[in-house]
Design brief:
Blueprint (H helix, E strand, L loop, with lengths): L35 E7 L7 E6 L2 E15 L8 E8 L5 E8 L27 E7 L7 E6 L2 E6 L5 E4 L8 E8 L5 E8 L16 E7 L7 E6 L2 E6 L5 E2 L9 E8 L5 E7 L3 H4 L11 E4 L2 E10 L7 E6 L2 E6 L5 E4 L8 E9 L2 E9 L14 E7 L7 E6 L2 E6 L15 E8 L5 E7 L1
Parallel strand pairs: 3-5, 8-11, 9-11, 15-17, 21-24, 22-24
Antiparallel strand pairs: 1-2, 1-4, 2-3, 4-5, 6-7, 6-10, 7-8, 10-11, 12-13, 12-16, 13-14, 16-17, 18-19, 19-20, 19-23, 20-21, 23-24, 25-26, 25-28, 26-27, 28-29
């Protein structure tokens, strides 16, 4: 297929910046009266009486007094996003008259209405906040992972998200996101705008003589050019301001169907795309991520998260959390099918309860674990071997007498505790519709 360079690169400059009350930091700081509001994240070194807050304008030191109002703030920890009403004290420090969890004015009971920008009210009375950052690896349909100056964020993309200003997201893209907090405790994207997006085209596109093509989104697509790998080869398709993205934004590797119209510029233009917003998001097998409390076997348990530290083992998880390291016992009844593997440095979500002087894990989920959609047959093969170091949350590499086996692991399997490289195990396997062996059960 003949390919031509048919797009013109335009140096798009993102209009707008973080909306915050003007406070000048450092030398020549402007003194504001009580009621000045600043928003930022809690930085390392903060204490019960002094907060270090990273804002878009720099780092502030804010004192907490006995009369500080915490009624709208559940908890303060490193990385927590806060909105503070501050005033300048006679000791030359900023003091907080009130502290609130940023964006948590009310609980969201529905979707954000239309696209918004910072300061625009969402349906429940919250205010949308703009954040700017870089798209990170792990971003997928339904979930945007964003690196910002204040830290890493996970932002849900749902059916109400306006992605017309982005169209395509890949790691490294710079984007502005108008966000609000949902009733599921996640930040949701009301609108996503990418740097360098051409809003319109001068070409006239035939809307009546359309065609449909299906394929996979190529990783080197851009906000203005969709490269679609089809059964007949790769197509280069123009995306402009009138393109409607059915999944809100496109991701590398995504399976889509595109409706095309022929333009007066002699190129095919994308009129619309269709695909499932939830298709990839449903792959994540964690039921704890984004939760504060869950019910497990009739018992209410708090959910904590952090990274597994050295010294963790099959019976004890040492978890580095934003508040410090916790030691959590793993019992025979702990549910581990949403994690499967214990790996130092990886992120886990743990439902915990207190008993006999120790924290115990009721359920453990791994942030990186995913769930296969393949149909799995009943156990038809039993193998013995050693868990290899290459094992991941989703793939068990088992060194057997006949060689190394690669076996898919899913939530549906029974694991008899978290796997650790070097474990001697017996695995019962079922053959899947994806032509891979899957774990049905593991015994030791």
């Amino acid at each position: 297929m003949k390919q031509r360079r048919f797009w013109q690169k335009r140096g798009g400059v993102l209009a707008g910046a973080m909306l915050m009350t003007a406070v000048v930091f450092g030398g020549g700081m402007t003194v504001r009266a009580e009621g000045t509001t600043v928003t930022g994240t809690v930085a390392a070194g903060s204490s019960q009486t002094l907060l270090y807050i990273n804002t878009s304008g720099g780092q502030m030191q804010v004192k907490l007094d006995p009369n500080t109002d915490f009624s709208k703030c559940r908890v303060i920890m490193q990385g927590t996003e806060l909105s503070l009403s501050v005033y300048r004290g006679s000791d030359a420090y900023w003091h907080a008259s009130s502290v609130a969890s940023a964006g948590a004015v009310q609980t969201v009971t529905g979707q954000a209405a239309a696209a918004g920008t910072s300061g625009t009210a969402a349906p429940n009375g919250q205010t949308l906040t703009n954040v700017y950052g870089t798209v990170q690896n792990g971003t997928k349909t339904g979930l945007l992972k964003l690196s910002t100056s204040g830290g890493n964020m996970e932002i849900k993309i749902d059916s109400s998200t306006d992605g017309s200003g982005a169209r395509f997201l890949a790691p490294g893209n710079k984007v502005m996101v108008a966000i609000y907090r949902g009733s599921d405790a996640y930040q949701h994207a009301a609108k996503i705008t990418a740097d360098g997006v051409n809003a319109a085209t001068s070409a006239k596109v035939n809307q009546s003589g359309t065609i449909k093509v299906s394929g996979t989104v190529a990783g080197d697509s851009t906000a203005n050019v969709l490269k679609l790998n089809t059964s007949g080869g790769q197509m280069h398709l123009v995306m402009d301001g009138s393109t409607s993205i059915g999944t809100k934004v496109l991701m590398p590797g995504q399976q889509i169907t595109a409706t095309l119209g022929y333009g007066s510029d002699h190129y095919w233009h994308v009129i619309s795309t269709s695909g499932s917003i939830e298709a990839d998001a449903a792959d994540n097998s964690s039921s704890l991520e984004g939760q504060s409390y869950v019910q497990i076997n009739g018992q209410k348990m708090q959910v904590v998260h952090g990274t597994a530290a050295g010294g963790s083992g099959r019976d004890l998880l040492k978890l580095n959390t934003p508040d410090g390291q916790m030691e959590i016992k793993i019992d025979p009844g702990t549910q581990v099918s949403e994690a499967r593997l214990l790996a130092v440095g990886k992120t886990y979500y743990v439902a915990i309860y207190y008993n006999s002087g120790y924290w115990h894990a009721g359920r453990i989920s791994a942030s990186d674990a995913t769930e296969s959609k393949a149909g799995i047959g009943q156990g038809s093969l039993t193998v013995k071997g050693t868990v290899a170091s290459a094992t991941t949350f989703d793939k068990l590499y088992l060194a057997t007498s006949g060689g190394m086996m690669e076996i898919r692991m899913d939530k549906s399997g029974s694991y008899a505790g978290l796997l650790i490289p070097g474990d001697e195990v017996t695995a019962t396997l079922g053959y899947g519709s994806d032509h891979l062996w899957h774990v049905v059960s593991i015994t030791r």
